[in-house]
Amino acid sequence: MSAQNLTELLDVRAGRPADLVLRRATLLDPVAGIDGVHDLVIRAGRIAELTAPGEADATDVEELDAEGLHAFPAFFDPHVHLRTPGQEHKEDVETGTRAAAAGGFCGIIAMANTSPPISTGADVAALREQARAQASVPVGFTATVTAGMEGEELTEMVELREAGAIAFSDDGLPIRSARIMRRALQYQRLCGGTIALHEEDPELSAGGVMHEGAVSAAVGLAGIPSVSESTMIARDAALAAYEGARIHVQHLSAAESVEVVRAAKAAGVRISAEASPHHLCLTDEEVRSLDPGRFKMNPPLRHESDRQALIAALRDGTIECIATDHAPHHLDEKEMPFEQAAMGVTGLETAFAALHTELVLPGVIDLALLVERLAGGAAPFDVPRPTLAPGAEANVALCDLGAEWTVGEDGYESRSSNSWCEGRTLTGRVLVTVAAGQVAYRLRSFSLGVA
Amino acid sequence: MKNLLGIEEIDRAEIEAILDRADSFAEVGRRDIKKVPTLRGRTVVTLFYEASTRTSSSFELAAKRLSADLVSVKASGSSVDKGESLKDTVATLSAYDPAAIVIRHPYAGAAQMVAGWTGAAVVNAGDGKHEHPSQALLDVYTLRRRLGSLEGRRIWIVGDVLHSRVARSNLIAFRRMGAEVTLCGPPTLIPRGIEELGCAVTHSLDRVEEADVVYALRMQLERMDDKFVPSLREYAAAFQIDTRRLGPRQLLMHPGPVNRGVEISGEAIDSPQSLIGEQVAAGLVVRMAILYELLAGRPERPTAIADGAAAEAGTPTIGQPA
Fold first, then answer.
1. A-contacting residues of B 211-240, CB under 8 Å?
2. B87 and A336: CB-CB below 8 Å?
3. Which of A396, A419, B2, B201 could form a disulfide with A434 if both were Cys (CB 3.0 to 4.6 A apart)?
4. What is the predicted ipTM?
């Protein structure tokens, strides 16, 4: 029996179910085969009907003039760092989910590498309670694979699942030991839940701060070779095949990794993969600026040929979803020389706009593929895919594809400002997000305009 | 030129302007009274987060020879020991309104960041494994005095390129001055992809006789958290520059400090081909020239400085002995 609504698996602050008519919106839901101008009617938080433009009855409900605007199934991000507990100066459940809503996401999965890491059922229960009080969009919480992320012994995976952990991940760190990895995959048979993997061989990446290649040679920064990622994926794909287990590879960055995932899929391994907007849009050339605020992350920005391989994999489905790896950091942890600065960039608020600007407008991928992949992160975690199909829970992102905006100009919903898009002018903006049947976000100027 | 952050960002004409200026300071250095009043009343701060003998002493002496007030801050024994961030330290020192901050730091990009936080001119005296522009300038200066021009000269840089900011800055500077550069060392110490900077790479000294100049690098044992070569003995057997490998018309350079008997043999250091002593002497006049260019130079340096008349016209501005 699979879930129908996000809130069956994820937690959100309960609010008023939306009653809304999006008048003359251009709808696009490639999975449901919806493509055209309609009135989209949301009643009591569900998609009530799609009518011919101008025909919907808007009596007693709010009506938004959406002529010229696009409505998509809202996006789902399986890789977010909410930094709670322990690092609330970077982000918390409230600010992180607000950032998600502002980016058009109707659901996110939070990583467990908090301080301390989420390793017990009580940790998960406490976070779920917090989400029910504070979260603008539904959140699922992962638990760590190994106790305290120390890589030594497994967490109590069965109890964690019973407490509501959506999946398992030691993200931020690889699982160094093949023996521990194998045991986790064996235990998955008992408790279910995807195991999401940060793939990196620490023996090969040790000391590295950027992609190893001509740029690292030129600027004198220690490199992280692409094979430090691909060799670990190969190991874990082989283990997953052997155990019949299911794994999800996080933030693919290298062409070699794409090849490994493609081959594993062809061989029938139960493996899914994600790529981040920054890896799809940027290359290691950016690091010549030595700006850690926008360009230092792990895995690092790689070569143009790697970026092209990721785009090809996004197209052919080797990579089924886009995940932001939203990694907020305080300014103090970024305003220092590149090697010392913290790794990670934020991405929730800009994911759609950045990919629309960098990949869709130049004709690299089409809009339907972007919309499909931005919600593709639900399936690997058994979360129902957001859809515009009548009858479904309303999860809708209303976007103005022509709107230009400069990132950071009006600040961020996130508590942190380490956006890789800081200062960029992007085309395409989320105006309204409906998540789990509730209005989770409205761009202020837009809602004032229609009031 | 507001700052000197890297060789990467200065062109050949700018390099030559600094070297010409250094020539005129070499003349001052031959006088009995070696001090000029050029920077009187201005403050130079040296901020060193890493150990240094040559670079720190020559920048300090250069500032003093130019009559600047000098504040030397070392990371150990300062608030840096107490955990003060680079940004806060720079803000503190900037409160004294210095004309220049000379910084050495163990991490790449530090000088560039400092330049964004202070109104003072910033001189990069070495940032991690990134750049060491004043070293490259003094090396080009030394070679120019000996060879006239670097155009078409073949220069081999031998040894631990991976950990060397000198290798990176010198590679760029030598090429910009028209030389052909070959990097030589074991594959574990040559960064992958560096040939894209426009140099040849070899892993053997077999053809080193082709070189007009052999630039040996220090094995940076302090930067190695790992064994990059099986043993120093084996490394020396394959890559040490000694008097058998060094021909009589070849020049030998090294940025110092030397690991005697590792990258260079003792005899080679003391051989007539060795320019190591001249490099140190050049360090002073070149660093005087750098401070002069940044602080005393006109807002817009005359474009014709390279030609004789303008260069001559430039000399008197150095002023009379103080």
1. 225-226
2. yes
3. A396
4. 0.89
